[in-house]
Specification:
Pfam families: HEAT_5MP1_2 (PF25504), W2 (PF02020). One of its GO terms (cellular component) is membrane. This is W2 domain-containing protein. It comes from Coccomyxa viridis. With about 425 residues, the chain is mostly helical. It has 2 domains: about 30-220; about 250-420, Serine Threonine Protein Phosphatase 5, Tetratricopeptide repeat. Helices cover about 65% and strands about 0% of the residues. It has 20 helices and no strands. The chain has helices spanning about 30-40, 50-60, 65-80, 105-125, 130-140, 145-160, 170-175, 180-185, 185-200, 205-215, 230-240, 245-270, 280-290, 295-310, 320-330, 335-340, 345-360, 365-375, 380-390, 400-420. α4 packs across α6. The chain is elongated, with a radius of gyration of 34 Å. The model is unreliable at about 15-25 (pLDDT under 50).
Length: about 425
């Protein structure tokens, strides 16, 4: 008979049994029913906001696992129950009658629900991610809802941003760039309602900031179906929706893009070896101005900036830079005069010149000399220069430049008086 040999033990050491990790199965259905029951039990009268806040108070006192079922929580509050693939509400289980998609498609009707979200997020900021997930899920399922349903989703999303819940624009709004739904026109409807709701309480600057964070500020046209993706279509649609401020913003944004394209093309013509004829540079500017409907007041700024930036200044002293600018002005006098044909454009040029000289230390002491060059070459008129001195100057470096310009301004005024006497 054999006996089992005992293994040696270390005196004073207690052997502990390793505990197993017990995995608890996910049960979003039970969580959803618990949430529905809590809100239904707190109903007392017709005051929706009071009932919802009473429900939240009870909800926060429970031991429900919000970190595990955050998505389910917001699905119940948005749709009355858990959402299946495609945005449909799961059939089994109790449903919450008072939910976002059951409300009227109005800002006022959505605010009580957004206040509920605010209350939940105040103590549990980790729920921001589940809220974002639910907004994305609804946005990606727009084609499963009717027009009213899509408007409700858009308004609720707009309120989430307007009431500053902490939702990240790039996570949620980037989902709008969905080719399938864009082609159907669903994204345009959603975006239009979203913009209308947001601008009802926030400024156009706030909306622009939001779009910039979502990386959509240069993609407004991409929200339109391919067959209607022109600036004229964008203007007509958003003006018809009462979004003139958005139209103006987009027009300025497009203008900035085209002005930059013009700047690159003009710079290439001037810095080519050898430089292209001045007539070719004039044609480039003229064609761009006509094609993109660019204002003369902005075009002249681009022309001047390109001419100055084409001058090498490294290792040059003030007098050498002054001589190089004079040479450039004389060489491209026809280009400057071609697009500086009114007092308004001249005013734009001299103010732009002032800002450029203030911001570039190498040009700081040359402002008066450059103005004199432009005057001598009939690019700036004396009336424009005197207007600038009296009321048109930019705050940047105003006092310094006015002091430097004083002798020249005095000479202009005396010349004007002599002409009047004659």
């Amino acid at each position: 008979m054999s006996t089992k040999e005992e293994k040696p033990t270390l005196a004073g050491v207690q052997i502990k049994t390793r505990k197993r990790n017990i995995a608890v199965a996910l049960d979003p259905g039970s969580f959803a029913e618990a949430v529905v029951t809590i809100f239904e039990d707190q109903k007392d009268g017709d005051d929706l906001e009071k009932n919802l806040l009473a429900g939240v108070k009870v909800l926060e006192a429970t031991a429900l696992d919000f970190s595990r079922y955050g998505d389910t929580l917001f699905e119940v509050l948005f749709a009355g129950g858990r959402l299946a693939a495609g945005g449909n509400v799961v059939e089994e289980g109790k449903k919450l009658d008072t939910n976002v998609l059951a409300a009227e498609p109005k800002k006022e009707a959505m605010v009580p629900y957004i206040k509920v979200f605010q209350t939940l997020l105040r103590k549990r900021p980790f729920l921001i991610r589940p809220l974002e997930n639910t907004l994305i899920k609804l946005l990606k399922s727009l084609d499963f809802y009717d027009e009213l349903g899509r408007d409700k989703i858009a308004i609720a999303t707009g309120r989430c941003f307007a009431m500053k819940l902490g939702v990240q624009p790039d996570r949620v709004l980037q989902s709008m760039l969905n080719d399938r739904m864009v082609a159907k026109g669903l994204i345009l409807q959603y975006a239009t309602t979203f913009f209308q709701d947001y601008l009802a309480t926030e400024s156009i600057d706030d909306l622009v900031s939001l779009l910039r964070k979502a990386r959509l500020d240069t993609h407004l046209l991409d929200l339109f179906p391919p067959q209607k993706r022109t600036l004229a279509d964008l203007d007509e649609h958003f003006k018809g929706a009462g979004l003139e401020r958005l139209v103006e913003y987009n027009r300025k944004k497009q203008e900035e893009v085209h002005l930059q394209e013009l700047k690159v093309a003009l710079a290439e013509s001037i810095t080519a070896d050898p430089p292209l004829p001045v007539s070719e540079s004039i044609r480039i500017v003229h064609d761009a101005k006509k094609e993109w409907q660019l204002p003369d007041t902005e075009v002249i700024k681009v022309v001047w900036t390109v001419l100055v930036e084409a001058i090498p200044t490294v290792g040059k002293n003030t007098q050498q830079i002054k001589g190089a600018i004079l040479k450039q002005v004389k060489a491209y006098e026809k280009l400057l005069n071609a697009f500086c044909g009114s007092a308004r454009v001249e005013a734009s040029l001299i103010v732009h010149l002032q800002v450029c000289c203030y911001e570039d230390s190498k040009l700081l002491k040359l402002f008066t000399d450059i103005v004199r060059m432009l005057y001598d070459n009939d690019i700036l008129a004396e009336d424009t220069i005197l207007w600038w001195a009296k009321k048109g100057s930019h705050p940047k470096g105003r006092n310094v430049f006015l002091r430097d310009m004083e002798p020249f301004l005095k000479w202009l005024e005396e010349a004007e008086e002599d002409e009047d006497e004659e």
